[in-house]
């Protein structure tokens, strides 16, 4: 009798439903997280590991290369947010309107890059951005009369190459997110706005934008993570993890360099913990500002 | 309050996904994070409104990403009733070498027949898996390829992880290139890895292009090349070529901003080693390195050399640069021969291989670069058989023949270098490709004249700083002080030791 009560209890049932997630979360996320945290205070050796206290962290503070990696990742994240939220939103609104013809074709074209392996596309972009005169970018710049340029050897053009890859790859995906958000907006709201005599811009500002906010917050959140954790694009563009003057080095690239290339897992874990803290701070601030934690008004 | 707690938990999940994604080989951290973020955010109210379309899109993307991940090629060779050996590599062709060798082995040793399963993993994954299984004490294969740059990590476990090969390779040792065997030595002096190749650095010259520019015959050009002994001679010949061709956009050679080959050569010639070996400490402020860099700066200023497009000659832009005859000479390890046959087949018959110039007559004139050492792990149930087979497959006449024919490497067993049927076999594609026989060059260099730069724990630090910073400083700006650049390098290295 008691056990039946227990199973039918409204208090317990939700926990049973979320149990599979909590279990996989604990085993695959929490456990490695704690292990990584403890390892960040150790010097991981081949046969045995020693406790080194805060040595990994103090070294990290003085590590110029790590600072370059952080700054690169932060810049990349910032620019991807600037480019990959407004433009896909604009495209989605266009796709949702009657202005654009053959929408299916456009959607497919914009989405196609997301289906390509980064390994393949990264290699193609590396060849396009080569400093040799036969690369696409140099062909264009020569046609415009500027001569050849060492795209992947200078800070700004290296970042440009990374952003081109990011936009090429993610515009379509983000656009589809916004498009699904738009589909969920009740058309009667637009009709009401029409009756009130609202212009197209006013309708976008007062109906579309506020109702699209949940989608925008979602896209923003995943873009922050995607931006900070970018690695493969840079690895492919520079055919390895080393770029001139580290212009393409990201935090995860540095983690890989330390953990895998130099087999210094303790230090790599310290890098990972710092990345975790940075990502958490940014997203908490962002989510608080967006009111995600506020109690719902109704 | 509960909602708040949930949000905190989920946000942590998303970020944790980041970390775990990286820890697992960092193959697709962005995708992992994206997935976790997707799950997490979906559970919150944020995208409650999102329609099924979003999910379908995300699922489709996941499915495609999974499909795009490379399949892991596994092949089993040999006698199914024989002793089973597991082998890991990161180059599929290497696995095929062992497959072929297993067939021959079984014919010769029916009493010790083996069956070998070779699995090819991506480079990073394979080394991570190997290190993890060695540390864990279980799960490692019997035989495993280890890239020379990763070797210090693996050999750190010495005989607790690996089987010393000393006893198994002693029959071959007298004729093996000593520098190559030493590359895979442990701190305790035992040999833990069996090499595929010498990777001897030699000078590649485009004789056809030089003859055309200088208006002389191929033979006369070769005579001139053969008379080059020192770097001064090399520069003189280069100036002669430049004067003859009279074209600002054509260069004698290209210098690398993304590779250390030139510097390794300079060190080996002067008997230096910036790593300091196992004892250390690393010292990068070497005269040999300084002289090489200063000389390269002079070449850049005088227009004798250009900077290798995209950093070094072993990339697509480098191949194109060579095919466009923008450069007509460069030093590279002999395994670069396969780049000619694979990427520049049009160049057949144009190129001549010669000894590298030296700073002073009588110095060593080559250095072994790159490589893969194959190890036998202590976890193997058949260490004896595995080690015996491995050394035979990589050092015996049969093994070396197959390495040369299928992999195109300059083999380490010098006994083969002078065998006519091996070194002068015109059916071999590399012998047929170049004007002279590659093994004649190797023999003329001699096994004792091939230097060695140690690959130890500090090596990745040095190589990385040189390729990202030092070379870009001094070569992209030929007026940059070499002393300053080397001091910066030393400071960066000191921080790690």
Keywords, please?
heterodimer, A: 298 residues, mainly alpha, MetI-like fold, 2% strand, B: 497 residues, alpha/beta, D-Maltodextrin-Binding Protein, domain 2, three-stranded antiparallel β-sheet, 24 helices, 11% strand, globular
Produce a short descriptive summary.
With 298 residues, chain A is mostly helical.
Question: What this model shows, in words?
Answer:
The complex is a heterodimer of chains A (298) and B (497). Chain A is an all-alpha fold. Chain A has helices spanning 2-8, 13-39, 55-62, 64-84, 86-96, 103-111, 118-128, 136-143, 155-183, 187-195, 200-211, 213-228, 232-237, 251-261, 265-289; strands spanning 42-44, 49-51. Chain A has a single domain, classed as MetI-like fold. Chain A is built from 15 helices and two strands. In chain A, helix 9 (155-183) packs antiparallel against helix 12 (213-228). The model of chain A has no long low-confidence stretch (mean pLDDT 89). Chain B folds into three domains: 2-68, no CATH class; 74-196 and 370-399, D-Maltodextrin-Binding Protein, domain 2 (3-Layer(aba) Sandwich); 201-367 and 457-494, Periplasmic binding protein-like II (D-Maltodextrin-Binding Protein, domain 2), CATH 3.40.190. Helix content of chain B is 51%, strand content 11%. In chain B, the strands form four sheets. A six-stranded mixed beta sheet of chain B has the order 1-3-2-4-12-5. Chain B has a three-stranded antiparallel beta sheet with strand order 9-6-10. A two-stranded parallel sheet of chain B has the order 7-8. In chain B, helix 4 runs antiparallel to helix 18 and helix 17 crosses helix 18 (397-407). Chain B is globular. The two termini of chain B are 50 Å apart. In chain B, 53% of the residues are buried. Chains A and B meet through helix 2, helix 9, helix 12, helix 14 and helix 15 of A and helix 1, helix 2, helix 3, helix 5 and helix 15 of B.
């Amino acid at each position: 009798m008691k056990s039946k009560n227990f199973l039918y209890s409204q208090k317990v049932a939700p926990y049973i439903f979320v149990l599979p997630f909590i279990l996989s979360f604990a085993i695959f996320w929490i456990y490695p997280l704690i292990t990584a945290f403890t390892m960040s205070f150790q010097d991981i050796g081949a046969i045995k590991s020693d406790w080194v206290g805060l040595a990994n962290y103090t070294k990290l503070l003085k590590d110029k290369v790590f600072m370059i990696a952080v700054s690169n990742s932060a810049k990349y994240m910032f620019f991807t947010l600037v480019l990959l939220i407004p433009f896909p939103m604009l495209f989605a609104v266009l796709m949702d309107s009657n202005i654009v013809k053959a929408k299916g074709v456009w959607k497919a074209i914009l989405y196609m890059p997301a289906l390509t392996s980064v390994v393949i596309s990264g290699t193609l972009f590396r060849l396009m951005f080569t400093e040799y005169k036969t690369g696409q970018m140099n062909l264009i710049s020569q046609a415009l009369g500027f001569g050849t340029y060492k795209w992947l050897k200078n800070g700004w053009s290296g970042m440009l190459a990374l952003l081109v890859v990011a936009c090429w790859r993610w515009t379509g995906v983000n656009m589809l997110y916004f498009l699904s958000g738009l589909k969920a907006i009740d058309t009667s709201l637009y009709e009401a706005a029409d009756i009130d005599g609202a212009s197209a811009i006013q309708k976008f500002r007062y109906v579309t934008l506020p109702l699209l906010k949940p989608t925008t917050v979602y896209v923003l959140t995943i873009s922050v993570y995607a931006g900070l954790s970018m690695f493969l694009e840079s690895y492919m563009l520079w055919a390895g993890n080393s770029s001139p003057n580290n212009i393409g080095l990201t935090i995860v690239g540095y983690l890989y360099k330390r953990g895998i290339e130099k087999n210094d897992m303790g230090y790599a874990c310290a890098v990972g913990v710092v990345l975790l803290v940075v990502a958490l701070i940014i997203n908490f601030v962002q989510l608080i500002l967006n009111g995600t934690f506020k109690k719902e008004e109704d | 309050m509960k909602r708040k707690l949930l949000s905190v938990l989920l946000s942590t999940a998303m970020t944790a996904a980041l970390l775990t994604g990286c820890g697992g080989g960092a193959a697709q951290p962005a995708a992992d994070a994206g997935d976790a973020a997707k799950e997490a955010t979906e559970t919150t109210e944020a995208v409650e409104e999102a329609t099924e379309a979003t999910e379908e899109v995300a699922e489709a993307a996941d499915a495609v990403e999974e499909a795009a991940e490379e399949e892991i090629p596994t092949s089993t060779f040999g006698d199914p009733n024989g002793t089973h050996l597991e082998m890991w590599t990161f180059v599929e062709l290497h696995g095929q070498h062992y497959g072929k060798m297993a067939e021959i082995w079984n014919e010769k040793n029916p009493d010790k027949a083996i069956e070998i399963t070779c699995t090819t993993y991506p480079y990073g994954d394979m080394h991570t898996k190997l290190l993890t299984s060695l540390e864990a004490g279980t799960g490692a294969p019997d035989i495993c390829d280890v890239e020379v740059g990763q070797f210090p990590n693996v050999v750190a476990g010495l005989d607790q992880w690996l089987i010393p090969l000393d006893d198994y390779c002693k029959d071959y040792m007298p004729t093996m290139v000593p520098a190559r065997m030493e590359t895979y030595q442990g701190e305790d002096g035992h040999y833990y890895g069996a090499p595929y190749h010498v990777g001897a650095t030699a000078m590649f010259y485009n004789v056809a292009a030089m003859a055309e520019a200088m208006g002389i015959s191929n033979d006369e050009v070769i005579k001139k090349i053969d008379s080059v002994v020192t770097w001064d001679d090399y520069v003189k010949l280069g100036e002669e070529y430049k004067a003859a061709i009279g074209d600002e956009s054509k260069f004698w050679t290209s210098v690398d901003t993304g590779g250390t080959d030139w510097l390794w050569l300079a060190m080996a010639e002067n008997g230096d080693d910036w790593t300091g070996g196992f004892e250390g400490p690393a010292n990068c402020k070497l005269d040999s390195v300084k002289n090489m860099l200063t000389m390269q700066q002079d070449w850049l200023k005088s227009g004798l050399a250009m900077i290798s497009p995209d950093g070094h000659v072993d990339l697509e832009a480098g191949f194109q640069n060579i095919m466009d005859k923008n450069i007509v000479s460069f030093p590279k390890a002999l395994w670069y021969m396969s780049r000619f046959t694979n990427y520049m087949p049009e160049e057949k018959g144009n190129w001549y291989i010669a000894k590298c110039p030296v700073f002073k007559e009588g110095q060593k004139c080559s250095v072994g670069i790159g490589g893969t050492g194959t190890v036998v792990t202590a976890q193997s149930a058949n260490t004896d058989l595995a080690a015996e087979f491995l050394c035979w497959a990589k050092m015996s006449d049969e093994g070396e023949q197959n390495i040369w024919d299928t992999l195109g490497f300059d083999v380490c067993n010098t006994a083969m270098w002078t065998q006519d049927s091996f070194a002068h076999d015109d059916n071999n594609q590399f012998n047929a490709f170049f004007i002279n026989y590659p093994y004649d060059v190797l023999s003329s260099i001699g096994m004792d004249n091939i230097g060695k730069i140690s690959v130890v724990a500090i090596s990745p630090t040095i190589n990385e700083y040189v390729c990202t910073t030092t070379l870009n400083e001094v070569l992209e700006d030929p007026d940059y002080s070499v002393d300053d650049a080397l001091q910066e390098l030393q400071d960066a290295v000191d921080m790690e030791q």
